[in-house]
Every structure is written in C-alpha cells, then in structure tokens.
Amino acid sequence: MNSGKDEPEELVTEPILNAAGNVAAEEPEAGKAEETPTTSAPGALTAPDSSEIEDWNRQVRRRMRQRSRRSFLLWGAGLAAGIGAFGWLTTRPETGDVPWPFRKTLELNERLARGFFSEHRLSRTFNASQVSSDRVNGDVGLDEDVDVAAWKLRVEGLAFGNGPLMLGLDAIRKLPRVDMTTELKCIEGWSVIVQWAGARFTDFMKAFPPRTRTGGAFSLGRVEDLSGYVSMATPDGGYYVGLDMESMLHPQTLLCYEQNGAPLTQEHGAPLRLVVPVKYGVKNIKRIGLIRYSSDRPADYWAERGYDWYVGL
After folding, report:
1. CA-to-CA distance for 308 and 105, rounded, in angstroms?
2. Residues 310, 110: contact at Cβ < 8 Å?
3. What pTM value is reported for the model?
4. From CA 286, how far away is CA 92, in angstroms rounded?
C-alpha cells in the first residue's frame, strides 16, 4: 500500500569475494595509516648482563694487545732495515771520498741540472726596494781582513804571457759595469735578495782572454774551443770552487765589487767575489785571489766534503 510518502530504502552491502570465493579482508582507507598491533607494552630498561660486558671487554683487550705487538714488530723490522741499509751504504767503496751509491746519486743530480741549464734562461731579477736585510754566512778563507789597496788577483791559463797575470781592482772596475738584483740561495734552505754591481765574467774573458784548446784566437763564438772549467780560490787557498765553463759564460755571472750600493765588506768578500745566480751560494766564492782556466775538473771545497760538485739551480 502506498502511504503517499517515500520511505528510505535500506542499503545492503554485498561482501567482496576473492579469487577463491572467500570473503576478502577489508583494505584500509587511503590516507589512513594502518594500526600496528602492539605485541607488548613498554616496560622498564633491562640491566645489561655483566658477564656479557666482561666478555666483550676481554675481546677488546686481546685485540689491542695483538695490534700493539704487531705495530712494535713492524716498527722494529723497519728500524733494523734502515740501520742495515745505512750501514751497507756507508761501507761501500768510495769514489771521490764519497761511497759510490751517494756519488752515483750526486752524478744523477748533476746530469739533470746540466740538462736543464740554458744560457738563455735567466734567473729572476727584483726591484731594489725588495732587497733583503743583510745576512752573513760562511767565513772559510776569510780568517784575516785583506788590505784592499794591496790586494791582487792572480789569473792563470791566459792566452798571452808565460806566467800568471796579476791584476788590481781598478782593472776590474774599468770593465763595463752591470747592476742587477737577484736572489742568493743557500744550500741550507734560506735565501736573500741582493743588489750587486760588477763586471760580467764574459767581459773579463774578452779583456784577458784564456788559452784555447787549439791555440787559435779566443772567441765566445767558439765555446767548444775553450777549456771546460774555471777554478777560483781565496788568497790563502782556504776556500776554493770548481765551475763549469757553461755557467761562467752565463750573462748573469759577475765579478762583483759592490753589494747593496756599497763596496763589499770584509765579511762579504771584499774586494772581489763571484756572483753566479744559476748556482747555490756555496759556489759564489768570496774574496777571490785566484782564477785559473783548466781542462780538468777542478777541486771543490764542498764537493770534497760530500756535496754535489755542480750544485746548479
């Protein structure tokens, strides 16, 4: 019977069956996290087992002892090997007053430096304002002050005359003057910037030409005709250096009589010293008393004491 009013229809939800025909579990609504069932209620922290802690500590201590012994054994083995190697090196037959392994190393250094050398490669120059504070180092051959007025430079191996030539400082001052500011590097690791004034060694050679190999006229255009080395020594012979001719022909190699705008002082080698920026300071001999041209490699003070003969930069 129709009562004349619409009665609400009752909603009936049919169950969802899975592939096996069973009722499937309901899927959680999107955006709503699925609640995780709690397996147990939170309780108080459990005290660690003292026996487990002690067992762990024993393992740590055992590993530390093992590592300490291993480290000590490795250190001892390394020390023994080092002592053995040093003993072997220092007991080898000597070549030129140096055990041959060290001499071979020095010769390798020289070959590398000579291969790098070029007369066109100039050492860096600086402004006069960059000159360093004065520093004095090395006094071998400078035991007694020299009388500059009486000082003479002895030159051997010249093209003319049968004996050595004796020159005063004026003979050097008459040569073209060169001013330059370069860095003097010590083999000990320090360096200073110094302003020098003097004459190029090549100008000295032009004025006082050395004897040539062939006996012909001296010419810088025939370097192969020149003797291969130059030897220099202090007036008392206490300090001496040997130099290769290539380095002496370098345009920055000077016979220097002024330093930082003033005549050389006694401790800096008055009245004349060598400045050769392509070499370490040990080759920059102070107070030159002798210059000798030689075909044989000359003796060198520090090379005889185990240093490199060439010591090029």
Report:
1. 9
2. yes
3. 0.68
4. 35
